[in-house]
Amino acid sequence: MNSSDAVREGLIPLLPRLRRLARALAGQVADADDLVQTVLERALARAAQWRPDAALDKWVFAIARNAWRDELRARGRSQHLFAPEEAGQAAADAASAQPAHQLELAMALATLPPDHREVVALVLVEGMSYGEAAELLEVPVGTVTSRLARARASLQAHLGKDA
User: Fold this and answer.
1) Whole-angstrom Cα distance, residue 24 to residue 105?
2) pLDDT tens digits for the chain (163 residues)?
3) Which residues contact 159 (CB under 8 A, 6 or more apart)?
4) Who contacts 131 (Cβ-Cβ below 8 Å, separation ≥6)?
5) Cβ neighbourhood burial of 81 (10 Å; 0-12, 13-18, 19+)
6) Where are the domains of the chain?
7) Taking the domain 1-75, which CATH number applies?
8) CA atoms of 159 and 106, how far apart (whole Å)
């Protein structure tokens, strides 16, 4: 099996994790979907560059991170999160507390700087170790630790002390 076939087969089980990472980075479903598509296109086009001795998920996540950074630079704007239309339909409904909390969390994540949002996505959402995240981001472990600490403090301040 050549590297192109291995990448193609390996991408399928990675899709749920890639989608979670994209949603954490992008904050908006449409942007996340676009990011996933871009990542898949780049991974398939560059499959020959993947080394079979390297972890496919780390390679794909690096593509995602770089693609998102490219997108942010191209847009030249900061991320804004608007409430989806369906969130307003049940605004007074007590049963809507869970979606409202999720929306509040998504809004808080969107306020984080991109480098902090990346660390949150990799460590807290994807469950990577600090070392794995540091390797993927090409930064020291201490940088991951401090970014995560600042991100947590910012999220806690935004969501309140009981978050």
Assistant:
1) 11
2) 777 888 999 999 999 999 999 998 888 899 999 999 999 999 999 999 998 888 999 999 999 999 998 888 887 644 444 445 554 444 444 454 567 677 787 788 888 898 899 899 888 888 889 999 999 888 999 999 999 999 999 988 888 755 4
3) 104, 105, 108
4) 141
5) middle
6) 1-75, 96-163
7) 1.10.1740.10
8) 11
Q: Which structure tokens are listed for 76?
A: 């030249």
Confirm if 128 and 116 have CB atoms less than 8 A apart: no
Q: Which of 49, 19, 43 is nearest to 121 (CA)?
A: 19
Contacts of 30 by beta carbon, 8 Å cutoff, 6+ apart: none
For residue 119, give the nearest of 94, 88, 91, 141 by alpha carbon. 141
CATH node for 96-163: 1.10.10.10
How far apart (Å, rounded) are the C-alpha atoms in residues 10 and 135?
21
Is this structure's pTM higher than 0.70? no
> Could you tell me if 130 and 123 are in contact, meaning their C-beta atoms sit under 8 angstroms apart?
yes
Looking up tokens 């472990």 gives 141
Kindly report the backbone phi and psi dihedral angles of residue 88, in degrees, each rounded to the nearest multiple of 5, phi listed first: -80, -15
